């Protein structure tokens, strides 16, 4: 069975009624790493959650925070309300932590340069939160693994290369190696340190092995990835190299290889080196690799190997295709490894053998049933936060967690987070929107919605400038669970995808076509305009805003469009322009029959950051608008729907004094946005209302560019 059929089958099963209750993972909470900052510390300072582990009882999470040179601790006694336990300074860059009893063993990079790498293994007493011992490792540590018996530590000494030297090409000495450290009476026996050399094994730069990750099986064997060397090594329980082999290559088709603002999955790549990052044993004879790539490769998926090096299963393009269908494809990485699977975790939940695969760039985690290693079955895709780096399974509590390294707090955007999921009988809450059908439909950055006048269960959405080379309209079956995109219509001019558009609003014209609003940006030579397109997306009219209006324009232009019963169009301008009083923006009216423009002013709420309008819709006798701040997570305070009575609108001709409307707040959207238990998304940008008063709202996922990629589509009765 191909992946496409299996994914569509998942959607069909989710929509079937009645259906047996199956255990699923749903996110139950999130924790911002900035919350571990001590009182008085600068919370705006960069933090991170990278590789993560849990205590044996599953009540605490411990993650590496490289920017702070510390490990962070989280109390998850109540996993729905995680609590900060603070940071423990490591006097260096922590990489990976493992825990045995009350002791944590932390690999710490203390290197002064790439050519003079150094590092130590620090022993931390978790009760006193103090470092009690140090063991010199002789190089720069990365991954650390604890044997199932608790009697041995394995440490990757990566001695990573400088990517700015010779384009990052190997060799760059010194070479990396593996350190094995016995544990006696709960303490590391540094005197019995064993070094396992890896030189002379790989076909690529054999003199400079650069190990990346390692994992123990139940027999005490280690499997090691040499990512840049595209090689795999098995070290037996005596510390001897038992086997080694190339990670091999993959042929990929139906992929996007150009960073060009288009979601075009028609390209192919041949003989792509897998270059695996994380590795995890499934049993004593099989292991899986996440093929992130780093130097010359990256096959955008994962592979399951026999211990003799033969391939049992390779995901090919299927993992990436799964992320494409839920809107998590990072188009900006098309020319550089696509979704980049990096994190990997194997665990058994109630006897179910599960492999979790984290996409660093797609910011999502695939959950696979690997009972048969030759035929993994995709069960779910989880929303992870930005850049999942570390995955933790706590089967005894039916919990799973992801550590997400990306912190954009300096720009007022999302902080680094730890996300916590619980496995229970029920329905998967995410995704809320997927694309289906034989054709692979890529989508994202939804910026506007409208209802099909002929079928209120069908919506049409629009994408913004995140895909500026391929502006598109999406047909959405809203009644399906999750809602499904069944068609993609590219907006075109003279038979080619239209250029210089930033589509932020869409309104059905009642005759099969659409009115579109394009937000202008003078720096990018994008005009402020509205467009009329037919059912196939071909532009019939392009109407630029009048010069007397755009003379005071900024880049924060049209953010929605709607069609009134009298045939006139209403548009929302996002923020005040140069000719507006402070704290006010405009609602514009355009009459297609006469070509006349008019407007009124809309009073914006005060808030942190900026506040503006994101969408406009008509229902009954009111205009409805989305008014929001531009803040995210804990900083977000204002995401709301307001209304303005149409009977009270007295738009005036442009160029003169414009009347100010009175508005009413009808719904606070922040509680809605919290229902998925992640951080509050900032860009609530779409609103459409059916004749029966059902309001549909959606978030813009920014095309997965410095964003989690999460699109939330939901409804409520007005």
Task: Give a written overview of the molecule.
The chain is mainly β. It folds into 2 domains: 1-45 and 247-431, no CATH class; 434-716, Tachylectin-2, Chain A (5 Propeller). Helix content is 4%, strand content 45%. It is built from 4 helices and 54 strands. The strands form 14 sheets. Strands 10, 11, 12, 13 and 14 form a 5-stranded antiparallel beta sheet that branches. It starts with a helix and ends with a strand.
Total strands = 54
Number of domains: 2
Total helix count? 4
Indicate the CATH topology of the largest domain. Tachylectin-2, Chain A
**What is the general shape?**
elongated
CATH classification, class level of the largest domain: Mainly Beta
Helix fraction? Answer: under 10%
Supply Rg: 27 Å
The N- and C-terminal alpha carbons lie at a distance of: 43 Å
Largest sheet: 5 strands, antiparallel
Low-confidence stretches: 1-6, 12-18
Output mean pLDDT: 95
Beta content comes to: over 45%
Tell me the CATH architecture of the largest domain: 5 Propeller
Protein structure class: mainly beta
